[in-house]
Backbone:
């Protein structure tokens, strides 16, 4: 009996990681799927915006997500997003050239990376601790996402006003500027962070309200690049929007 209990407990403990092999998982239609199949499909459906409002990365996919966000594939995927922005700017964009052209960027996981923070927090598998995240942000050590800097400089050279709109709170302003400048970003037109008043709204509403002010002020928003749907949805939006991959967290 004791031996049976022990085996049962041992099975329970290891279940989350290995039940994929033990039970040989099947999808609803009976497809045999591996843990990798399962997590790959979870990640893709996050990016397709079919999976929404997730609070944490599913425990069994933490290792898969960690591998993805530190992989060459993640870099290639992100670089492709930026490449499509450049194609659009070169072919589909009739810039006014009169100071009313604008482009909007997110900051976290768009200009700079929070992967080092999430690495210490199970790549999103742990519930967010805002105090902890803000303490990390205030150190201004977030590394650059190089491909985005290339687009940033391309836009600057074209005379497009660059507007940064972030869900970071106002208190992080100097640390944010320090971090951005240190990794090579400079020459943006406006850096908009969340005031206590903005914090009462959802992020999507806050960002849409900022864009409303920009449009009312005469700006043409040619494009938005962000890693969250809350950065590109809502009205008014940009003429085009570009979504960078981010399976670690969901902001709304
Ligand atoms: C969040 O992190 C801070 C600082 O590391 C810690 O003191 C606090 O207990 C954490 N809060 C929760 C709810 O875990």
Residues:
């Amino acid at each position: 009996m004791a031996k049976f209990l022990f085996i049962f407990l041992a099975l329970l403990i290891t279940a989350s990681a290995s039940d994929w092999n033990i039970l040989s998982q099947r999808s609803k239609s009976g497809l045999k799927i591996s843990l990798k199949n399962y997590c790959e499909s979870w990640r893709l459906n996050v990016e397709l915006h079919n999976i929404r409002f997730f609070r944490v990365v599913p425990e069994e996919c933490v290792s898969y997500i960690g591998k993805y966000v530190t992989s060459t594939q993640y870099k290639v995927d992100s670089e492709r997003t930026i490449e499509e922005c450049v194609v659009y700017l070169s072919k589909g964009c009739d810039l006014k050239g009169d100071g009313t052209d604008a482009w909007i960027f997110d900051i976290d996981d768009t200009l700079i990376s929070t992967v080092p923070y999430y690495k210490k927090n199970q790549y999103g598998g742990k519930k967010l601790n805002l105090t902890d995240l803000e303490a990390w942000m205030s150190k201004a050590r977030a590394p650059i996402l190089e491909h985005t800097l290339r687009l940033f400089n391309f836009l600057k050279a074209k005379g497009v006003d660059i507007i940064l709109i972030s869900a970071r709170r106002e208190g992080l302003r100097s640390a944010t500027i320090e971090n951005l400048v240190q990794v090579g970003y400079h020459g943006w037109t406006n850096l908009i962070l969340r005031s206590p008043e903005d914090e009462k709204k959802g992020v999507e509403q806050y960002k849409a309200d900022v864009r409303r002010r920009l449009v009312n002020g005469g700006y043409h928003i040619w494009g938005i690049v962000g890693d969250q749907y809350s950065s590109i949805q809502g009205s008014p939006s940009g003429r085009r929007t570009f979504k960078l991959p981010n399976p670690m967290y969901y902001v709304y």
